[in-house]
Amino acid sequence: MNVRRSAAVLAAVAVLGAAAPAAADSSPSPTPQALPSALYGDTDPQYDGVWRQSLALLAQHAAGAEPPKAAVGWLTGQQCADGSFAPFRADPSAACDAKTMVDTNQTAAAVQALAALGGHDAVTEKAVGWLKSVQNKDGGWGYTAGGASDTNSTSVVIGALAAAGEKPGEVKNSGKSPYDALLGLELPCTGEGAGAFAFQPEKDGSLAANADATAAGVLGALGKGLLVEPGKGDGEAAGSCVKATTPEQAAANGAAHLSGELTAEGHLLAVTPGGEEQPDFGNTADAVIAFAARGDAAQADKSYAWLEKNAADWAAQSGPAAYAQLILAAHATGADPRDFGGTDLVKQLQAAGPAAPGKTTKATEKAEDEKDESSPFGVWWFVGVCLVAGIGIGFLISNRTKRQQP
């Protein structure tokens, strides 16, 4: 969940770099003043609108709060005729075409949220049908249809299949299931990163441990989605790495690796440039959910306790998806998200949603701060520079850092 190096981000940078002179003539997304009132958050939704909306709805459901009907309606209205979802469609009445950048992550997140809320079978069935239609021959999924399979995308689709009542192990292409894909993306029990999941193979075919992918891989290998019920695991801490021949063993190996990567305080460290010694709040929240899914309550509780003391400011700066991550972590451990170190996470999340006081004003002020009216490139030039420089990339797509091979 914690924004991985996405193909969509890299593609945006490439387009901006190649076509900058034409940027003044068109705008690929609405200005912040034009954001739909039913959308959570006030930042540009071009890359993560459906994702953050889905997490916001799922988190409220987990906390026993009924999401606004307008917010649910906005999400269902984003679906394309073939069942897929793009991050953001400014005009849902316009038919999706080849230029509409749909992806598996947004689609799978929407399925998980709408399946949890109930009453949206037609939408989720169509979305699941599309996901099945773009399954790779190795059994997994890439971020975009036809892209190389990665652990994170495969895992979030597994969660969607399970949420929709499917049996992920029976969803196959060329005889391969998504579990086969995950087993192929886990590092062996010897050498550096033993038992971890890689995001994708490197260009030379080797696998590099990735904590974010490992947290996602544990959930996927267990056949679970983003909403994990507390007390449903086996109650045992992960042991030493053993060659995985089953998804369950792969999950145990991944959890053992994550445990070894935690600091003494119980959190993971960021691996983004310049942030190697900084806490990684999002990945730590993901790890909490992964530990809880296996039933490793002791480790999940320890890491959650660290988040409770330290992550409120991070969530306030990061927006609705971050609040949702923390609420889902609280739910997985049986904690109260309305008393998160003195912060009511549910209230804060709802304040970023429909009819939130000052939402439009805040967005307008943000736009004025970021946009130089004298520049022919406007805010998209600014976003492109930020992406190239690695500034703020962690919050553009589903609050994760992703690398997607072309």
UniProtKB/TrEMBL annotation:
Transmembrane segments: 379-397
Comp. bias (Low complexity): 351-361
Keywords, comma-separated and alphabetical: Membrane, Signal, Transmembrane, Transmembrane helix
Disordered as annotated region, ranges: 21-40, 350-371
Signal peptide: 1-24
Keyword Acetylation in record: no
Keyword Lyase assigned: no
InterPro entries given in the database record: Terpenoid_cyclase/PrenylTrfase
Name used for this protein in its record: Terpene cyclase/mutase family protein
Source organism (scientific name): Streptomyces labedae
